[in-house]
């Protein structure tokens, strides 16, 4: 079936280090959305990528959408303790009207 | 401007019972999607409602049903509860049919004993 794989599952970093999570889809995506979920919270929308090869930045966060629209990445520069949480990618298929297919998430821990 | 709201926040039920969860979408949004998030997992799509009709469904049994009202709010019903139905149930709203950004509510934590 349609799958979105996300790696790594967990990442522990020292504050100030960089962090990257990767997302791969088995099929071409119409767009991909990234969410952050804090422990005990709900997914909070970060960004949506639509175009092939698109790169978007939000302060220390850089999001990329692959040329084939099958993979994406989120890179955080110089992590802070406030970055702690689980980051999910979620794709919408080209033939689909709005079903978000979530990756398993990457849980980031930041040691001060 | 209120975001997506859900009720109740927490719910405890026993096996075999039925439950109804409620969702009010963000102002201006006409599409509501429901997701189930088991502990340590990503949300799994249950179904989506648009114009008061179920437009798309994920791999969930018929015990899961829903409804959308003329004011775009929605309900999720689960019959004959199983232990495995224990999860966080998330509602997400979006404008224009669901292809756009989906905004999640705080969720309802359901525990089945």
Secondary structure: helix percent of chain A: under 10%
Provide the CATH top-level class of chain A. Answer: Mainly Beta
**How many domains in all of chain B?**
1
Portion in beta strands of chain B: over 45%
The counted number of beta strands of chain B is: 11
- Written as H for each helix and E for each strand, in order along the chain, the element string of chain B is EEEEEEEEEEE
Question: Can you tell me the CATH class of chain B?
Answer: Mainly Beta
Count of domains of chain A: 1
Strand content of chain A: over 45%
Termini gap of chain B = 37 Å
Q: Main interface pair?
A: A-B, 24 and 27 residues
* Net shape of chain B: globular
User: What's the multimeric state?
Assistant: heterodimer
CATH topology of chain A: Immunoglobulin-like
Helix count, DSSP H or I runs of 4 or more residues of chain A: 0
* Averaged pLDDT of chain B: 94
CATH architecture of chain A: Sandwich
Question: Could you write a compact summary of the structure shown?
Answer:
The complex is a heterodimer of chains A (112) and B (113). Chain A is built from no helices and eleven strands.
